[in-house]
Amino acid sequence: MRTLRIMFAAFCVLACWVGAASAAPDGGVEVRRYALIVGANDGGKERVMLRYAVTDAQAMSRVLEQLGGIPKREQSLVMNPSVAEVEGALKDLGARIARERAKVKRAEVLVYYSGHSDEQGLLLKGERMPYAALRAGLDGLNAQVRVVVLDSCSSGAMTREKGGARVASFLEDSSVQVKGQATLTSSAADEVAQESDTLGGSFFTHALISGLRGAADVTGDRRVTLNLSLIHI
After folding, report:
1. In what order do the strands lie in the sheet with 145-151?
2. pLDDT digits over 60-115, tens only?
3. Farthest CA pair distance, the chain
4. N or C: which end of the chain has fewer CB within 10 A?
5. Reduced 3-state DSSP string for the chain
6. Nearest to 114 by CA among 178, 195, 171, 35
7. 208 pLDDT above the threshold of 70
8. What does pLDDT average to over the chain?
9. Does 144 score more than 50 pLDDT?
10. Does pLDDT of 196 surpass 90?
11. Nearest to 153, CA basis, from 16, 46, 13, 34
12. What confidence score (pLDDT) does residue 1 get?
């Protein structure tokens, strides 16, 4: 039941990303949205090879392009990487945001990971990327808003170690009033995340993408808001 509640909370990210980057009166960009999408089937010899982590990541990329206002040129897709490659992708994205800071008034980032993890960190090709290292990489992005989605076993350990707290509604009318980080996980620190051959993907990402494509728009206003989250400032 806990996982189900978190899954429905994960439906509520779309309002942060609706619409393309907006232009500022001075000719710059008011808001630019970036995404780092990581899919990792290979967690190492001691882990079962996943079947759908990469395809789930690709599906997330498509929905962000089609509905989320993040075109492919603003996305970094990293498939079956090593720890060093994920760390490098975070650094590269942080450097790009820094380079564009002069002409972009507001940067918003979504980081999505589908793959193996445990209570200590992400598992990539037999190596572990500790959650502390992941958080350091996220902090280095220097974006006003960071939305982190982890679809992996025991991923809730990242928020437990950090000391996140539940707060009131994260997004209401406009993302321009929002700052900080929201972390959505498919499992608690002591839970597993599962794939489904019937769905052709993980239960969590399937539910998330279905929500982003409209299933979570219960009011019919074409907006999905983030009502439950763990937010780190």
Report:
1. 75-79, 32-39, 107-114, 145-151, 180-185, 230-232, 165-166
2. 999 888 887 789 999 999 999 999 999 999 999 999 999 998 888 888 999 999 99
3. 55
4. N
5. CHHHHHHHHHHHHHHHCCCCCCECCCCCECCEEEEEEEECCCCCCCCCCCCCHHHHHHHHHHHHHHHCCCCHHHEEEEECCCHHHHHHHHHHHHHHHHHCCCCECCEEEEEEEECEECCCEEEECCEEEEHHHHHHHHHCCCCCEEEEEEECCCCCHHHHHHCCEECCCCCCCCHHHCCEEEEEECCCCCCCCCEECCCCEEHHHHHHHHHHHHHCCCCCCCCCCCCCCEEEC
6. 195
7. yes
8. 76
9. yes
10. no
11. 46
12. 28
User: Residue 219 has what pLDDT?
Assistant: 74
User: Would the CA dihedral through 226, 91, 57, 82 be positive or negative?
Assistant: negative
Whole-prediction pTM? 0.77
- Exposed e or buried b for every residue in 115-126, given b needs 16+ CB within 10 A? bbbbeebbbbbe
Residue with tokens 């395809």: 55
Which two structure tokens, joined as six digits, stand for 158?
A: 């990242």
Separation of alpha carbons 191 and 123, rounded Å:
16
The mean per-residue pLDDT over the stretch 115-134 comes to 93
Task: Tell me the two tokens of residue 190.
Answer: 């002591």
Task: Provide CB contacts within 8 A for 50, sequence distance 6+.
Answer: 40, 41, 42, 43, 115, 116, 195
Q: Do the Cβ atoms of 50 and 153 come closer than 8 Å?
A: no
The fold of 2-232 is Rossmann fold (3.40.50)
Closest among 228, 201, 172 to 112, alpha carbons compared: 201
